[in-house]
């Protein structure tokens, strides 16, 4: 198993803000039980404060906004489109496979945009890129299988789509997509993924030598002028904080390991 992939999954579990706050609280309880009351109380109070701030305050919006504003919405200038690539990550394969119907999470805009673009550019090549990002996946190409189930509902003939089914992270998405699609100089490929994920995705494709045009979807913020609205549910604020923190940590890790073209890729 690839050491970078394994380390990223393990370290991310420990570093994700919501998990880290739980770890601090549990450690605080343990220290209090061991009669380290002052230190234990401090850790518990830190965890509670973190839950309050990251859960209810608009901090998550400010974390996500720079990522989402990095690449503008796609504007069709009439240049022919060679192909359209959708990255996996929106699928919920456990539910979909158990129920026998397609299931998607918050990033469900990805397949919607993929279908719309397939109709707008009927001559463009279509590609889905993604296997499973789990450390211990159950079965092969679970993300691709979910998309195959969805194609009739999306109105896309399966024969028109090529699938890359082995990649486990964004860097592998880029490398294996290039190997599969063999892009040529001067071609125009649209890359469909979440706006907050676009900088790392584009940076990875550039590093792989695959020039793509960003087609961001699945925005989590209203816009840079409306970032100060609090959350009504702590769970939502924490979830979006985790989402943004993961991308910033991922950008740094990818840059230090040479998996992206820049620390914070730009158009």
The helix content, as a percent range, equals: 40-55%
Order of helices and strands: HHHHEHHEHEHEHEH
Runs in which pLDDT lies below 50 for 5 or more consecutive residues are: none
Structural class: alpha/beta
Integer-rounded radius of gyration: 20 Å
Q: Give the helix tally.
A: 10
- In spatial order, strands of the major sheet run 3-2-1-4-5
Strand content: 5-15%
Name of the level-1 CATH class of the largest domain = Alpha Beta
Mean pLDDT: 90
Q: Could you name the CATH homologous superfamily of the largest domain?
A: HUPs
The largest β sheet comes out as: 5 strands, parallel
* Number of extended strands: 5
Oligomeric description of these chains: single chain
Q: Give the CA-based shape.
A: elongated
Domain tally: 2
Q: What do we call the CATH topology of the largest domain?
A: Rossmann fold
Distance from first to last alpha carbon: 33 Å
CATH architecture call of the largest domain:
3-Layer(aba) Sandwich
How would you explain this protein's 3D organization?
This protein has 267 residues and is α/β, with parallel strands linked by helices. The protein has a 5-stranded parallel sheet, with helices on both faces. It is 52% helix and 9% strand.
State the main characteristics.
2 domains, 267 residues, 52% helix, 10 helices, alpha/beta, 5-stranded parallel sheet, elongated, Rossmann fold
């Amino acid at each position: 198993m690839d050491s970078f992939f394994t380390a990223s999954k393990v370290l991310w579990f420990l570093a994700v803000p919501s998990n880290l706050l739980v770890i601090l609280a549990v450690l605080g309880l343990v220290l209090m039980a061991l009669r380290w009351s002052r230190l234990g109380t401090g850790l518990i109070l830190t965890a509670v404060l973190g839950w309050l701030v990251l859960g209810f305050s608009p901090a998550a919006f400010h974390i996500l906004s720079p990522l989402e504003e990095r690449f503008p919405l796609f504007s069709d200038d009439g240049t022919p489109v060679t192909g359209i690539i959708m990255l996996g990550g929106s699928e919920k394969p456990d539910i979909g496979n158990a129920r026998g119907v397609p299931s998607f999470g918050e990033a469900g805009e990805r397949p919607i945009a993929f279908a719309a673009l397939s109709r707008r550019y009927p001559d463009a090549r279509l590609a889905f890129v993604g296997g499973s990002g789990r450390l211990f996946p159950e079965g092969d190409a679970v993300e691709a299988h979910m998309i195959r189930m969805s194609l009739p509902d999306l109105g896309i003939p399966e024969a028109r789509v090529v699938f890359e089914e082995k990649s486990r992270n964004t860097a592998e998405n880029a490398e294996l997509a290039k190997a599969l699609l063999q892009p040529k100089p001067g071609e125009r490929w649209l890359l469909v993924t979440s706006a907050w994920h676009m900088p790392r995705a584009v940076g990875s494709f550039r590093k792989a030598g695959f020039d793509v045009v960003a087609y961001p979807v699945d925005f989590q913020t209203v816009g840079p002028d409306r970032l100060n609205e609090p959350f009504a549910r702590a769970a939502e604020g924490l979830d979006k904080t985790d989402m943004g923190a993961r991308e910033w940590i991922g950008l740094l890790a990818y840059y230090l390991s040479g998996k992206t073209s820049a620390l914070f890729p730009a158009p």
